[in-house]
Specification:
The protein is flat. It is 63% helix and 0% strand. It has 5 helices and no strands. The protein is mainly α.
Length: 144
């Protein structure tokens, strides 16, 4: 009998790992919101609190290299969680559910600009503005 080894490439594993991370984070949020007594509640909720902002931050940082985006995402995630905790403690409204909702809402706000389509073409101006520009002066740069 002959056995063959199949090497899985990282491209094939990426969607699987992303799905597993999403499932773990979702379970963590559900465990915390449902006030479950599961021993996995703490680690899964912590993963949710770190992974949610860390997934939202790099979307706006397309110009950075991948390692820079990863480092910025992790640092930004920690900073966002600390700011939420400090803000809730400052106003004496600390709760686990409130913290989860606040981090989720702020992460969604970080993703919002990426959902708005950008116009990359030329801007068309109305005819009334074109008529006003007839007396405009164009300044050209001079050579030094």
């Amino acid at each position: 009998m002959r056995t063959t080894r199949v090497k899985a490439s990282s491209r094939e594993l990426s969607p699987l790992l992303a799905g597993a991370a999403t499932a773990v984070a979702g379970c963590g949020a559900l465990f915390a919101l449902a006030d479950s007594n599961s021993p996995l509640r703490g680690p899964f909720t912590l993963f949710f609190l770190l992974a949610t902002p860390a997934a939202a931050i790099p979307v706006g940082l397309r110009g950075l290299e991948p390692f820079g985006r990863l480092l910025t995402a992790v640092a930004g995630s920690v900073v966002l969680n600390m700011l939420v905790a400090q803000g809730m403690l400052a106003v004496h409204r600390w709760s686990v559910r409130g913290g989860l909702v606040a981090v989720t809402a702020l992460s969604a706000l970080l993703l919002l600009p990426s959902l708005v389509p950008r116009s990359r073409g030329t801007v068309r101006r109305p005819e009334s503005q074109l008529a006003d520009d007839k007396g405009a002066v164009t300044v050209k740069p001079t050579k030094r």
